[in-house]
Design brief:
By secondary structure, this protein is mainly β. It contains 1 helix and 10 strands; from the N terminus they run βββββαβββββ. A hairpin with a 6-residue loop joins β3 (35-42) and β4 (49-58).
């Protein structure tokens, strides 16, 4: 018999970037990455045969967050990305641990996804709509690559 009949609520979430301790990222959208099993090909006389490989391939993590009024959370991601322009010898020097917390109706953590070795690869534009009288918050999307993800207590390694 199942432990619970309730579905996972995905309407509230918070991104914690452990490298950027003073910044809040209230999640508007979050895509749990897709996973593919590496595809190998076994050569054959008449046709090559696809077989399952031993490695997982993970899609990047995409997060849409509310941009705060002084744009500090947006600027911190830009500053982090600028660090890649300097001299560094190992990507791990610039990576961070992320926690994506899915919150319940009482803002208590319902589910946490732990991501290690994460670094931003893209950040989207921030659209300013001056004719909107509803005060809709600005949302920005950031994409992260990573080396390790922990979902529901199951650790999955991606690289290194």
């Amino acid at each position: 018999m199942p432990k619970t009949y309730n579905s996972l609520q995905t309407s509230k979430g918070k991104l914690v970037v452990h490298r950027l301790t003073d910044i809040n990222y209230w999640i508007q959208t979050f895509t749990l990455p897709g996973v593919q099993l590496e595809r190998l090909t076994l050569p054959g006389m008449r046709r090559d045969v696809p077989i399952a490989g031993a490695k997982f391939e993970y899609d990047p993590i995409n997060v849409g967050f509310i941009v705060d009024q002084d744009m500090s959370n947006y600027n911190e991601i830009i500053n982090w990305m600028n660090e890649f322009q300097g001299n560094f010898t190992d990507i791990r020097d610039l990576s961070s641990t992320l926690s994506i917390n899915i919150l319940n109706g009482d803002n208590a953590i319902q589910q946490t996804f732990g991501i290690k070795g994460a670094y931003p690869t893209t950040i989207s534009e921030v659209e300013f709509i001056t004719t909107d009288s509803t005060m809709t918050p600005s949302v920005c999307n950031v994409t992260f690559n990573y080396t390790h993800i922990n979902i529901d207590g199951i650790a999955q390694h991606v690289g290194y």
